[in-house]
Amino acid sequence: MSSHPDLRRAEWRKSSYSNGGGGECIEAATNFPGVVPVRDSKDPEGPALVFHASAFAAFVGAVKAGRLHP
Predict the structure, then answer these.
(1) Quick check: 58 and 66 in contact, CB under 8 A?
(2) Domain count, the chain
(3) Assigned domain for 29 exists
(4) pLDDT by residue (tens digit) across 3-57?
(5) Strand pairing of 35-40 and 48-52?
(6) Pseudo-torsion of CA 37, 39, 41, 42, nearest 10°?
(7) Average pLDDT, stretch 53-64?
(8) In a domain, 35, yes or no
(9) Residue 7, SS3 per DSSP
(10) How far is Cα 38 from Cα 56, in angstroms, rounded to an integer?
(11) Range of the domain at 57
């Protein structure tokens, strides 16, 4: 069995931080238990990164709390 999810069935959701202008946007698929695939919304046929759900939740929490700096 592969440890990588089959992303053909991914239900992609655009980040709520997206400005709608085609800038720095990501999409995440939320229909995979335990992992979160993430891709660049400008390149939907390109590669996706797959994170453990707990790691992605920690990242999102840090972004929301303003703990990450450009």
Answers:
(1) no
(2) 1
(3) yes
(4) 678 999 999 998 776 666 656 788 999 999 999 999 998 899 999 999 999 999 9
(5) antiparallel
(6) -160
(7) 93
(8) yes
(9) helix
(10) 9
(11) 8-64
Tell me if the pTM is above 0.85: no
> Which of residues 2 and 67 earns the better pLDDT score?
67
60 contact partners, CB below 8 Å, separation of at least 6 = none
Contact between residue 45 and residue 10 where contact means Cβ atoms under 8 Å apart: no
In a domain, 12, yes or no: yes
Predicted pLDDT at 58: 96
Q: Read off the tokens for 20.
A: 């709608």
Q: Is residue 33 part of a domain?
A: yes
Q: Which segments of 1-66 are extended strands (E)?
A: 12-14, 26-29, 35-40, 48-52
